[in-house]
Amino acid sequence: MKKRFTSARVPGTGMEQLFSTPARWQAWLDVEAALARAQADLGLIPADAGKAISRACDLDRLDSDRINAEIDRTSHPLMPLIVELARAAGDDGGWVHWGATTQNITQTGDVLLLRRAHTIICGQITDILTVLADLTERGAEMIMAGRTHGQHAVPITFGFKTAGWIDEYVRHLDRLDQISPRLFVALLGGAAGTSASLGEDPGTLQRAVATDLGLTPMAVPSRSISDHFAEFVTVLGLIATTSGKIAREIYQLMKTEYHEVEEPVPAGTVGSSTMPHKRNPQLCQDIIGMTAEIRALVPLALESAISEHDADNAPSALFDVEQHACELTADTLARIHLIVANLQLDPRRMRSNLDLSGGMIASEAIMLRLGETIGRQLAHEVVYDAAQTASTTATSFTDALAVDPRMTSQLDTDTIKNLLQPDSHLGLAPAIAHHQAIRAREIVVSRREN
Predict the structure, then answer these.
(1) What pTM was estimated for this model as a whole?
(2) Tens digits of per-residue pLDDT, 343-373?
(3) FRET partner for 239 with CA separation of 20 to 30 A, picked from 32, 79, 114, 307?
(4) What is the CATH number of domain 7-351?
(5) Distance CA 176, CA 185 (A)
(6) What are the domain boundaries of the chain?
């Protein structure tokens, strides 16, 4: 994956190293070792062979240069590794890979890597919940303009906005937990999944290998089944949707015209070669681009889950999608954490922006109070007329209300003045923010204890 110019200030995730070729080969060797041990225990291969093969399943004991050279010569991803493993196992090398086919080893080994990737991503989201709880608590009472369809709507608090981010990330953790038993499965069914090459009791062998690796066996060990991998990419796509939305929101609120928040801009950061004043939302722009790419991988994963007959190259193509999605997701979440943990808030700018509508942001509150005496629809018309007058003439919203007898006959000046105060119409916004901050912290504690 390409290195971004912001990478130097973003903590590493370990995801790229996780999917390195040596790491992948070692995962495949781990499966070969588990297979040999299980077959030896069940009497399918000699006990000494099981021990010798298991000992030899260490990449440091193999000749990686020879493996690479043979991959170039044979155009096969696993056979050169099997041959080198057999050489390292000595006289017992003839029992290596007994009854298995390539995909049994590579797919199951890749699942071991995906499990580690899954752990990294869950850990990152948990860490994000920690800093989101702090941010949400900090902004719980911080009044700002709620905006719908790009226009002022009603007053909210910044913490209410971030409470929604907590809620989404919690659901993503739930999804990741729920997918685990479907995703972390071992494929061991031989050439076409029938297990004809795996002895008299292949079910026991499959369970033994899976248990050794901390997995569960596939109920139907068919090489054409890949929906669980596509599901994982889809969940990563949903995480990308939330993360991209957060980055887009901060990007918007960081604009000069708003400037209600600012992502961290360390001293020395340059925004432009020709405009020295620029403080660009570089991390948010990274996230917006990366999350678009992750979401674009979802349909590719769905396409790659379609294979012809009982096996083809689709699972290999699907793993490439999974790897890329995992790397991009980890990179995205690292930036989300960095932004949220260091986000600068400007409550004075939030308040000044809220006042731009001249009180019209309180129109719903005024309409509802007036509606208690004259009905909601007529009250809507009264406040609507005042708002349109204020929007199209030099008359202020408050002055337009003050000269309308339909208003003044029902509500006195002090009542209208109080209704125009943004904090009079916040509803549950602060309470929801406080609650979600508590909820996030409780979830973090629970996950770290487990």
Answers:
(1) 0.95
(2) 999 999 999 999 999 999 999 999 999 999 9
(3) 307
(4) 1.20.200.10
(5) 15
(6) 7-351, 360-419
pLDDT band, very low/low/confident/very high, at 387 (cuts 50, 70, 90): very high
